[in-house]
Amino acid sequence: MGESTTAATFDGDYDYIVVGAGSAGCVVANRLSADPSVRVLLLEAGGRDDWIWFHIPVGYLFAIGNPRADWMFRTEPETGLNGRSLKYPRGKVIGGCSAINAMISMRGQRQDYDHWRQLGLTGWGWDDVATVFRTIEDHFLGDSEAHSTGGEWRVEPPRVQWQVLDAVAQAAQQMGVPASADFNTGDNSGVGYFHVNQKRGTRWSTARGFLKPVLRRPNLRLETGVLVDKVLVSDGRASGARFSKGGQQFTARARGEVILCAGAIGTPHLLQRSGIGPAAWLAEAGVLPLLDRPGIGRNLQDHLQQRAVYRVSGVRTLNETYWNLARRAWMGVDYALRRRGPLTMAPSQLGLFTRSNPEHDRPNLQFHVQPLSLDAFGEPLHRYPAITVSACNLRPTARGTVRLASADALQPPRIAPAYLSTDEDRQVAADAIRVTRRLMRQPALAGFHPEEVLPGLGVSDDDPAALAHAAGDIGTTIFHPVGTARMGRPDDPMAVVDDRLRLIGLEGLRVIDASVMPTITSGNTNTPTVMIGAKGAALAIADRKRQHQRA
Q1: Residue 321's domain is classified under what CATH number?
Q2: Is residue 341, in this structure, part of any structural domain at all?
Q3: 423 near 344, Cβ under 8 Å?
Q4: Into how many domains does the chain fold?
Q5: Domain of residue 336, residue span
Q6: Positions marked catalytic
Q7: Least buried of 109, 304, 459, 480, by fewest C-beta within 10 Å?
Q8: Is residue 247 in a domain?
Q9: Which of 493, 82, 434 has the alpha carbon at shortest distance from 278?
Q10: 506: CB partners within 8 A, 6+ apart
């Protein structure tokens, strides 16, 4: 069937309706449609990835904040950020956030997943998920105990390096942080260049890796430009989806399952519009509660990055290249001829994992170091040479919310991440600024005369309250929301799905995306979401086989 331009052929029932062709949804559609006897309908609100900036890695600068690619959400004003409201990018295109994100391939730490298992979530320990990570990979390091080749998720080394970032790596080692050639073995301690989801200098989204190669399957139908209004429920079971396309309303029926892959913002918002969520929230928004699940939209976790900026001298950064027309032209030539140079850059190139203080038993800070500086993504680079050294708290204790504002699907949800709302998070934020300063004072960087622009030397290391306030001034999302439909034991009143990702209290509905994470992983969250897509699809397939055997 491929992709249809009309809805006239919505006849019969589908075995699976998958809502969201994003980081997880593309994987789910790939796996489910591998069985030719199964009909799969994939619904995506965005369009095709037929814009050049979805493929040139530096295109994130143009995609984020552009309604062609981004849902353009904003947070509520955040007390912990001194009253600021943040832009909250989410991908709105096939591939979802993997089409506009930082392309950093990061699994997290062994203890993240072992903690999930300790919560009673069978099959989600590190040894369980490491197998899935290997299965989906096509890794430049080849086959090993940690990695494999032949999967759909391409991982490559960066194609550009910077003297100033090499110096930061040396400074980290002088500070006692070991060098690391691979952050993805279960222990990401150390400093090194990130591995990226690219192929020969172009972005490798889940749409490219998992969806496009199988769109010719006759049993897989992709509909883009579709806004799903609600999940349909009949006789205590999810029975389909109601959606709009081209100004018309349609319904599609599922004889098997409706699977939500709309992400940590989209999935709880859709569930709540469907009458599934905290009953008081639903009633306040004018939605008739069908199933009171108080955990839907709660437990929002995100990594807040504190973007410290340091002016440097005697070394090249991207800032000067950006403002030099001849150098910018050469960047284009270098990319066109060799697929190398700054146009292949991920937003962050150098990674550093360490502890905010010795009390932590494993790294709880991740640094993203960039050979550039700017006020915000999508805005021009600064006119002076500078680098950005962003530290984020890997395991925040704050828990925010995603809450519907009205029953209207066109109205964005109210997103309140609750950044820096706990004493522990404020302490880690203050310590992170101290660690950043200690890094930048190391001998390896002395020749470049780093000068702190943000947060600024007027903020004293000896004043924890001032440091936490400064963190609120320079803090911004690093685009890792998770947890808003979290996994849990069926006897946990705040759990939304069980360990097979089935919605608790309603048959025929499954959630497979970042929203199911009970706690956030210690690093970039896209690759874990791809893993969840593959594992969740396998669970759905196994459950279908089991049902057929019983029948």
Answers
A1: 3.30.410.40
A2: yes
A3: no
A4: 1
A5: 159-193+304-393+418-480
A6: 480
A7: 459
A8: no
A9: 493
A10: 233, 236, 237, 238, 276, 291
- Cα(99)–Cα(225) distance, rounded to whole angstroms? 16
* Residues 139 and 155 sit within 8 Å (Cβ to Cβ): yes
Alpha-carbon span 360 to 36, nearest angstrom: 50
pLDDT reading at 9 higher than 90: no
Task: Encode 303-321 in three state secondary structure.
Answer: CEEEEEEEECCCCCCHHHH
CA distance 233 to 50: 35
Name the pTM for this structure: 0.97
Q: How many CB atoms lie within 10 A of CB 286?
A: 10
Would you tell me how many other CB atoms lie within 10 Å of the CB of residue 178?
A: 12
For 168, list phi and psi in degrees, rounded to 5: -65, -40
Give the pair of three-digit tokens for residue 176. 């006692």
N- to C-terminal Cα separation, the chain: 29
Please state the separation of Cα 40 from the chain's center in Å: 25
One-letter amino acid of 102 = A
Contact 55, 62 (CB under 8 A): no
In a domain, residue 136? The reply is: no
Residue 353 lies in a domain: yes
HSE, CB side, 13 Å, CA atoms: give it for residue 88. 25
Q: Which of 505, 434, 546 is nearest to 279 (CA)?
A: 505
Q: Nearest-CA neighbor of 319 among 375, 272, 364?
A: 375
DSSP code of 301?
Answer: B
Which residue is it, tokens 């109210």? 414
* Tens of pLDDT, residues 120-132: 999 999 999 999 9
In this predicted model, what pLDDT tens digit does every residue of 285-326 receive, in sequence order? 999 999 999 999 999 999 999 999 999 999 999 999 889 888
Q: Give the CA-trace dihedral at 130, 132, 137, 143, to 10 degrees.
A: 60
